[in-house]
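Fill in residues.
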């Protein structure tokens, strides 16, 4: 297995260096850069040819915060997965960050095992939310707000709805292909069609759309 390259952005040096040490001790993972704020991280990304696979991004930072940095990085480097690190669990933060291009949302007091799972999930499934976050999204008033930036009058085919539910249930493209007896290329095509039809920026946005439209049974 290739080593997963991780970058960190957090203005608290002790937290950042502690997180780096913990991640470097995980199998198959290496922190290749750590930045004190979003502007420093962007400067490095623009100058390196060896981009990270995943960025762990603090929300509140000087010079450039995590929201702005996430928006810019997603637009410039869409293949880089971004997990936001924060103390906030309000659904308006989660939804706003997903709209900016975040692929996952992780509390700063998370155990290292959850950090490792989040890194794996954004790579293999395209998103990471824990149950508390999903519940906050489901119950939050923003889901009733028509200003959420999804396309109106979305008509999904039965197969697209089926694949959307499987994506939300954290199946990989290979697992979906095996389950439906289709190729992974076909799954990827359906995923792109879903993104285009719904107007979501990434897989995390598809999950929020599914919750908003009651296409996903969260089990609580």
């Amino acid at each position: 297995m290739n080593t997963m390259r991780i970058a960190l952005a957090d203005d608290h040096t002790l937290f950042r260096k502690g997180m780096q040490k913990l991640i470097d001790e995980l199998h198959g993972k290496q922190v290749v850069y750590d930045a004190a704020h979003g502007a420093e991280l962007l400067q490095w990304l623009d100058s390196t040819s060896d981009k990270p696979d995943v960025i762990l991004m603090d929300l509140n930072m000087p010079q450039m915060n995590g929201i702005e940095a996430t928006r810019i990085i997603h637009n410039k480097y869409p293949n880089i997965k971004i997990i936001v690190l924060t103390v906030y669990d309000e659904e308006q933060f989660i939804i706003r960050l997903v709209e900016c291009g975040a692929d996952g949302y992780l509390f700063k007091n998370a155990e290292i095992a959850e950090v490792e799972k989040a890194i794996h999930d954004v790579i293999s499934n395209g998103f990471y939310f824990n149950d508390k976050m999903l519940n906050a999204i489901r119950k939050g008033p923003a889901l009733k707000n028509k200003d959420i930036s999804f396309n109106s009058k979305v008509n999904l085919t039965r197969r697209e709805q089926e694949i959307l539910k499987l994506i939300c249930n954290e199946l990989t493209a290979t697992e979906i292909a095996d389950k439906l007896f289709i190729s992974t290329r076909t799954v990827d095509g359906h995923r792109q069609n879903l993104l285009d039809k719904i107007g979501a920026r990434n897989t995390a946005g598809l999950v929020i759309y599914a919750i908003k439209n009651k296409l996903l049974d969260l089990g609580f």
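Strands lie at 4-9, 29-35, 54-58, 81-86, 104-107.
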